[in-house]
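User: Teach me something about this protein's shape.
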Amino acid sequence: MFPPRAGQCAYVIDGAHTEMCVTEYSNRVFVVVTQVGKLGTVFHITTDGDETALQDAAMMLRVDPNAMNDKVRVRTLIGKRDDALLSACARHVGEVLVSKGCEKCVFVLFYCGFDLFIRARY
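Assistant: First, the predicted structure itself:
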């Protein structure tokens, strides 16, 4: 599909201005969520229905694709690899897209101040 479909919006989440942009290409969906106006950790999300993307992800990550057994698979490509909260957020984005019928692989970029709000609360 050319040109790709795109949409953007902004919300205040826990007091932080948060911008979101979604761009849909013919074979992929690109989601950006940022609270600081920059790109951050990049996640690659695939589903059981996207075997080509699953094979590509397995090759990039050097793992056996048969070992990847979740319905929604989330892999960190670039950025914070040990951030469980960002990974959970990326998984949630993937699950929402799958529930809406998306069968394409998804790239999600997060650069958010979640940890600042969580640390301030506890």
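Now, about its shape. The chain is about 30% helix and 40% strand. Residues 5-121 form a domain with the Ribosomal Protein S5; domain 2 fold (CATH 3.30.230.90). If you'd like, I can walk through any region in more detail.
User: That's plenty for now, thanks!
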